[in-house]
Amino acid sequence: AHTTFLVHGFGVWSLRLLPDRLDATQSIMTMSAEAKAGLFAARRDISEDRIFVARTGIDADRLTPGPRPAGLLPWNPSDGPIFGTAGRFSGEKGLPAMVHILSIVQRTHPRARLMFVGGCDPTSAPGHVAHWTQWRAHLDQAIAAHGLSGSVWIAGMVDDVVPYYRAMDAFWIASDVEDLPLVVLEAMSCGIPVVSTDVGAIPTVLRNGGGTCVHKQGGSISEPEMEDFAAQAVAAALDPHRTAVGMAGRDTILRSYSLGQLFEHVHRH
Length: 269
Hints:
- With 269 residues, the protein is of the alpha/beta class.
- Helix content is 39%, strand content 16%.
- It has ten helices and nine strands.
- The strands form two sheets. It has a six-stranded parallel β-sheet with strand order 6-5-4-7-8-9, with helices on both faces. A three-stranded parallel β-sheet has the order 1-2-3.
- Helix 3 (95-105) links the parallel strand 4 (82-88) and strand 5.
- The mean pLDDT is 89.
């Protein structure tokens, strides 16, 4: 029997799931060419022909554009731009950095707001819960340090993320490292412009439209890079062609990141 290990990304959590040595009946599936290159660099004992790429697929029939939902947000969305992010709370995601970026945005747009959707499923492995708890504490500390308790909303885990995407004027991701985050594809599928650090496969996905990438050198995003991110975020949210930008992103999803294509890749291998 052949065994395929699915590695979404190439961070420490993913690498821990792999055996110390692959035998002839084992291979690895990744979600992007960038992840394959990162995995091969981290595990030189694994030959490149044992690692194949299956493009991520999402449910674009469920994740669709739509009007901003009434009554969802704790603020009046007409007061200023609404930014948001989604996903698990973890060290590489740049959570405190996004709070800092909001403080920069508020210099010129004091009514700008930011919501965090996600965190960690409390029923997951104890190690994951402990990691999430640590980074939730760091996020709370950053909010307090910048005096932004009234401007940042931590929505937590939700059953249906679609209304939250639709409530955003732009989607943020300021990660230090990534593969291809599903949340980026989900936001694009909902027609929301993306502003991201240029990590992993995100620049490749956005090259035909749907958002912008902020250049980042080294590990965590620096102060000048956060200034650039803030400027790009405001430009994305206030762009009179914002809807067209968002629909360009959705076109990319429909063209290249459907569930059908994912199933085809998996079946082929």
